[in-house]
Amino acid sequence: MSDSTDPAAPPPPSGPGRGTAVTVAVTLVLLAALVWALRPPRVEFKPAPLEPEAAGCRKVAREFVPSNVTQIPDPSLDGLPPAQRLRALYRMNMEPCPCGCNASIADCRINHPDCDVSRRLAAQIVAEVQAEATRKK
Questions:
Q1: Is the dihedral of CA 120, 78, 67, 109 positive or negative?
Q2: For 24, phi and psi rounded to 5 degrees?
Q3: Beta bridge partner(s), residue 104
Q4: Are 109 and 122 in contact (CB under 8 A)?
Q5: What's the whole-model pTM score?
Q6: Euclidean distance between CA atoms 80 and 86, whole angstroms
Q7: DSSP for the chain?
Q8: Could you count the other beta carbons within 10 Å of the beta carbon of residue 21?
């Protein structure tokens, strides 16, 4: 007869088995992979410039988007007939200002009144529209 208290037999396992430990490890690895894959993009902070910004147009790195300005302070469009006025405003809204602000000439005239580049180009556009109208007559 065999006795259940045989000193040569190993004792029964008292805690979680090896399979449970492997399952926990695999679960943790999969969870870590999921968290890594779903992490939100980090904001890249840039330090403030050490030198003060120059006066005039601020250089902004963005795509050009035409504006919808209907009135500009300088040059005055009051002396133009409605068709010429609309043609000049259309060109000023559709053409980017080459000063580097990446805004339209009309938008640059409003937001950066000290910009000499947009002032010169706006006056040139008005002169071209007036010359175009006189040629057609």
A1: positive
A2: -65, -45
A3: 96
A4: yes
A5: 0.53
A6: 9
A7: ---TT-TTSPPPP-S--HHHHHHHHHHHHHHHHHHHHTPPPPP---PPPSSPPPSS-----S----------SSS--TTS-HHHHHHHHHHHHHSBPTTTT-SBHHHHHHH-TT-HHHHHHHHHHHHHHHHHHHHH-
A8: 11
Q: What is the pLDDT of residues 89-121, one digit of tens each?
A: 899 889 888 887 888 898 888 888 888 888 999
CA angle 64, 71, 98 (to 5 degrees): 30
Which token pair is 98? Answer: 């080459």
Query: Burial of 38 by CB count in 10 Å (0-12 exposed, 13-18 middle, 19+ buried)?
Result: exposed
* Neighbouring residues of 63: CB distance < 8 A, sequence distance ≥ 6: 102
Residue appearing with tokens 């790195």? 61
Would you list the domain boundaries of the chain? 82-136
Would you state the structure tokens that stand for residue 55, as one six-digit string? Answer: 């006066």
Quick: pLDDT tens for 55-91: 666 665 667 778 888 888 878 787 788 888 889 889 9
Token pair for 20: 């449970």
